[in-house]
Amino acid sequence: MLSQTAEYALRAAVYLASVAPEVKTAVAISDVVKIPVPYLSKVLQNLAKGRIVASQRGLHGGFALARPATEISVLDVVNCVDNLSRPAHCPLGIPDHIGLCPLHRRLDDAISDLQRSLGQTTLQEMLEPNSDGIVPLIGKQKIVRKRSSRPIAV
Amino acid sequence: MLSQTAEYALRAAVYLASVAPEVKTAVAISDVVKIPVPYLSKVLQNLAKGRIVASQRGLHGGFALARPATEISVLDVVNCVDNLSRPAHCPLGIPDHIGLCPLHRRLDDAISDLQRSLGQTTLQEMLEPNSDGIVPLIGKQKIVRKRSSRPIAV
DNA sequence: TTCTTTTCAGATATATATATCGCCATTGTG
DNA sequence: CACAATGGCGATATATATATCTGAAAAGAA
After folding, report:
1. B108 falls in which pLDDT band (50, 70, 90)?
2. Is the pLDDT of residue A30 over 70?
3. Do A106 and B121 count as a contact with CB atoms less than 8 A apart?
4. Which strand C nucleotides have any atom less than 7 A from protein CB atoms?
5. The pLDDT of residue B139 is above 60
6. pTM over 0.90
7. Which among B48, B58, B53 is positioned nearest to B21, based on CA atoms?
8. Chain A contact for B87 (CB, 8 A cutoff)
9. Distance of CA A139 to the CA centre of its chain
């Protein structure tokens, strides 16, 4: 569904939203959201380009949410690292096959629904606990990342 | 959204549905749906394992739709080659984080919606033209419109 | 200025998905 | 039976996504 990278971007963004407007270093973020530091750095750089987070170099630098969490949608975050866009026409590439055939229309609709859903969901909403009282990223234990298992597509 | 492989599987399955109950060789299918023959063969083998298509070895062998197109869902096809399943709990893997946090709950819902949508769509529906009269896989092929019947590519 | 902290950028390594190849098994036909 | 057509299957090659490394640039503090 979403790429691993998009999942990382969301976890980092939600965390920064949860502590906004604090500035956190890449290492500090990594400790909480359990993403390899070097890769997280890349993801954060992409988020900075997309104006989701603001970066600050040098001593006491780090990353902070660039805008209020109520004004950043989940889709905004995903679009920084993944291309969730819909194909304009049938990917078969046949010249006189301009529109979408039923097969691709259906897939296009599904992507459209997902985009709308994610576009309407703000980071702020992600911070509010669900019916089980569960909020993202909470857990004190250190986890061991298994390398052999398949990545989880979310 | 869907992997390239899933896209291939769908194109092949829709094509076989459009000519059912005819048997077609991998090469013949490749000519129509524009998928590299060696890779298409792998995809078809997966579809055979999933009982979507029936394979027949030997002279005059090939692949044919295993069941009526009305009884095969798009999800059935995708599941043969892609794992579209939803994670049971938050993929962070933190032991005391059993349920789904709002972030993952939302993504889980989106996958659920997609599954339901694809699960309710049959290959038969994919063969019926949309409002533009467009049916899958049809390029320059001539369309023969029979009275009181759906268009068929020849 | 000089030192330390920290992001930034590009190069590199690894894992996974995608694609190809070669040989064997099966089947219809002469 | 012998032969040709065809899928099955394992091994291999290539492309892309994911992850890591290294050094430079920036910024605050002594």
Report:
1. confident
2. yes
3. yes
4. 4-10, 15-22, 25-29
5. no
6. no
7. B53
8. yes
9. 20
